């Protein structure tokens, strides 16, 4: 889990193409004239070419024309009885000669008619406006794209689809709960409808400016990130018309053959994760096909000397590179370490082991490396295979690597013991070196930087409360009780970080320094961008403990979002959670629909909706089913050949 806010948000934006009329009539006339001139030039070149071809054509009587339906071909005519051999071609005499003159005449007429038709069409074109010509070109382009898409829809091998339990339901047992859940659904509708109106096809929405928005993680292309990220939330909320709308957009517009450089991690968790979850929930093949097409485009990112992928890859050229700000050209732990779940599913669904091999290679390489204090540093150089700076974090840059170790084990029906061991060992080191209790009794997770512990916890690290309870069962030396408690303590700390603000929404990161506890100090850390991690932890704790406080805390957060983040054009982040008059950042993040609203909805639903012994949520909250591989590892499973 890497915070987009850490990534450079600059650069890489192309100015919108201005298709509107130019402002000065004189300019417009100039454009028209030059266009006409070019068209006339092309036309005259075409006519000259045709006449030239006509006069220099070899005698057509030497060839017989065979009509093969759509394509006419000229082939040498061989009539040994009536012809005399001349220069390798047969000459024709007698009654045939007359027939061939007629044929020649017919050809001349056809060429003449074709010319006239082309001339007419060109004249018509000249009468058309620039916009009409553009529209025609666009229609032609769309036709070609459509045809390509039909060709791309190769069938994939059939595999046994896991038993999908709890894709519907979860109806709350009482009225109060039902009202709360309905309110969350209404919030989802508000977010979706406004994106539908003002940002459709763009990656995200600017709810105040009421237009599309994007960041460099999605590249320069409009990939409809919000649509793909939101699909499964729409599905489980029963918003089926909206789901179908999104599906149609994906079928007709989602194209990965674009010259655009995207974040491998973000595209994996949001797009591949989102498409796979939509596929499993709905059974619609198109989602699986798109997920596989996209995964193929990500594979070149792994072409590094070590097999540790680049952070970014150009979808068209396959050229990869790393973020300029990441320790001496390093790749990032939370990025290359957060591919496992989706890639295992891709191998399972396609029967192609390549995806599985790529992520297992990463795991093997990490296992062989020395770890300072048993900790995994956030940076690893993909050229040398050496660690970059020794920074370790359970928040940004490290977080979802640990999450995916645990979830790899859960997703394999608890058969991937290697992943479980790596998780247990990592958590042990984290507890020893990064987790502390503040003077006021709040448990927090600090960050290891340059040989000392920074007593600062990020909003992103709040997800770990949920992770600890999810991993409690099956823990080393049966410390389940301990991890349930640790998870609850993290949830309490994160709740405090919300409660100690004016808006009752948590800051991006908060300190534990002397008298300051769970409060952001620097202005640049006071923002809330609709992140899900705290609510995610409330939900896991609710599922494992059924302690009503988690529903109460979740509802507090929902009300605060509704009150301070809702605007008429959607939902927006806020810049300072300590100021009672919020300033909006004017971005509706795609993960707000994928995660924040989904976890809130699940918090007020029954446990029978997406039960956790059958589903594992990826780091973007996209549910993927547990693969019951009957105690074999994926590499020995017949589904993966
Ligand atoms: C999400 O995209 C994912 O949860 C990711 O792992 C990290 N953070 C954002 C939401 O905050």
Automatic annotation (TrEMBL):
Coiled coil as UniProt keyword: yes
Pathway in which the depicted protein is active: Protein modification; protein glycosylation
Name under which the protein is recorded: alpha-1,2-Mannosidase
Coiled-coil annotated residue ranges, if any: 101-143
Keywords from the UniProt entry: Coiled coil, Disulfide bond, Glycosidase, Hydrolase, Membrane, Transmembrane, Transmembrane helix
Entry similarity comment: Belongs to the glycosyl hydrolase 47 family.
Cofactor(s) this protein cannot do without: Ca(2+)
Enzyme class: hydrolase
Enzyme Commission code: 3.2.1.-
InterPro entries, per database record: 6hp_glycosidase-like_sf, Glyco_hydro_47, Glycosyl_Hydrolase_47, Seven-hairpin_glycosidases
Domain of life the protein comes from: Eukaryota
Transmembrane intervals: 37-57
């Amino acid at each position: 889990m890497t915070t987009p806010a850490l990534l450079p948000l600059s650069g890489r934006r192309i100015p919108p193409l201005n298709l509107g009329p130019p402002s000065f009539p004189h300019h417009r006339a100039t454009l028209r004239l030059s266009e006409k001139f070019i068209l006339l030039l092309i036309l005259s070149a075409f006519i000259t070419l045709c006449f030239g071809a006509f006069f220099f054509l070899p005698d057509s009587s030497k060839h017989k024309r065979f009509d093969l339906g759509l394509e006419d071909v000229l082939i040498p005519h061989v009539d040994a009885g009536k012809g005399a051999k001349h220069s390798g071609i047969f000459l024709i005499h007698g009654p045939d000669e007359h027939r061939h003159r007629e044929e020649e005449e017919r050809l001349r007429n056809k060429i003449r008619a074709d010319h006239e038709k082309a001339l007419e069409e060109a004249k018509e074109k000249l009468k058309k406006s620039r916009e009409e010509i553009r529209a025609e070109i666009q229609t032609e382009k769309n036709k070609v794209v459509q045809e390509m898409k039909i060709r791309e829809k190769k069938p994939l091998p059939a595999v046994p689809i896991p038993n999908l339990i709890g894709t519907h339901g979860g109806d709350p047992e009482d009225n109060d709960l039902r009202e709360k859940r309905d309110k969350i659904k209404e919030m989802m509708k508000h977010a979706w409808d406004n994106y539908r109106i003002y940002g459709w096809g763009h990656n995200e929405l600017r709810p105040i400016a009421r237009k599309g928005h994007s960041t460099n993680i999605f590249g320069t292309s409009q990939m409809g990130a919000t649509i793909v990220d939101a699909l499964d939330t729409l599905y489980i909320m029963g918003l089926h018309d909206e789901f179908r709308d999104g599906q149609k957009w994906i079928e007709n517009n989602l194209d990965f053959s674009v010259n655009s450089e995207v974040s491998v991690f973000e595209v994996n968790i949001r797009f591949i994760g989102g498409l796979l979850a939509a596929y499993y929930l709905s059974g619609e093949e198109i989602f699986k096909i798109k997920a596989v097409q996209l995964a193929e485009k990500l594979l070149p990112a792994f072409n590094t000397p070590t097999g540790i992928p680049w952070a970014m890859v150009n979808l068209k050229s396959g050229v990869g590179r790393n973020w300029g700000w990441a320790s001496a050209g390093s790749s990032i732990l939370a990025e290359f370490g957060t591919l496992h779940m989706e890639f295992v599913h891709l191998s399972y669904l396609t029967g192609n082991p390549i995806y599985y091999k790529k992520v297992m290679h990463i795991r093997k390489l990490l296992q062989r490396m020395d770890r300072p204090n048993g900790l995994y540093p956030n940076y690893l150089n993909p050229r040398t295979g050496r660690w970059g700076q020794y920074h370790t974090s359970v928040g940004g840059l490290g977080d979802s690597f640990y999450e995916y170790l645990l979830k790899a084990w859960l997703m394999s029906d608890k058969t991937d013991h290697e992943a479980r061991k790596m998780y247990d060992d990592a958590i042990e080191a984290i507890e020893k070196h990064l987790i502390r209790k503040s003077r006021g009794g709040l448990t927090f997770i600090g960050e290891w930087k340059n040989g000392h512990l920074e007593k600062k916890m990020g909003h992103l690290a709040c997800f770990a409360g949920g992770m600890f309870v999810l991993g409690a069962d099956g823990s080393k030396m049966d410390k389940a009780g301990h991890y349930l408690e640790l998870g609850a303590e993290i949830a309490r700390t994160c709740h405090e970080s919300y409660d100690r603000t004016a808006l009752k929404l948590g800051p991006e990161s908060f300190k534990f320094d002397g008298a300051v506890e769970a409060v952001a100090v620097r202005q640049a850390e006071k923002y809330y961008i609709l992140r899900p991690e705290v609510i995610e932890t409330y939900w896991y704790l609710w599922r494992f403990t059924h302690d009503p406080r988690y529903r109460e805390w979740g509802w507090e957060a929902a009300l605060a979002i509704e009150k301070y983040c809702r605007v008429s054009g959607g939902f927006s982040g806020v810049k300072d959670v300590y100021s009672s008059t919020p300033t909006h950042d004017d971005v509706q993040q795609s993960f707000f629909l994928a995660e924040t609203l989904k976890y809130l909805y699940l918090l007020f639903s029954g446990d029978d909706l997406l039960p956790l012994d059958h589903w594992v949520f990826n780091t973007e909250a996209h549910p993927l089913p547990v693969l019951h591989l009957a105690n074999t590892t994926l590499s020995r499973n017949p589904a993966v050949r």
